[in-house]
Design brief:
two-stranded antiparallel ribbon, 7 strands, alpha+beta, single chain, SH3 type barrels, five-stranded antiparallel sheet, 106 residues
Length: 106
Amino acid sequence: MYNIGLAYGRANVRGAQWHQSVGRTACEGPVMCLAIPMQIKKIDRFLAVCEAKGIEREVSVFMLQDETLAVGDYVLVHVGYAIQTVSPQEARSAWEVYDQMLAANA
């Protein structure tokens, strides 16, 4: 199964816990979210500057604090939070699918 911008598992459990901690209700049943693959350009503790398609964003890597992250790694970013690491091939595949969807809507 591809991680084409869909993140399952541990990171989403943390996300659901965060939603509950701020008084929001997490979705019932399996949790799935759309995330954008981005490449880490800089890291400073729990904040990273990530880039995708020439756009840079400041991203929290707090939820991945148990993983060793380095400049050049790819992460899936959902609402400003890196929720999962992915390989360069998975990131490329996701962007190919996104580009196809955008072309179909043009």
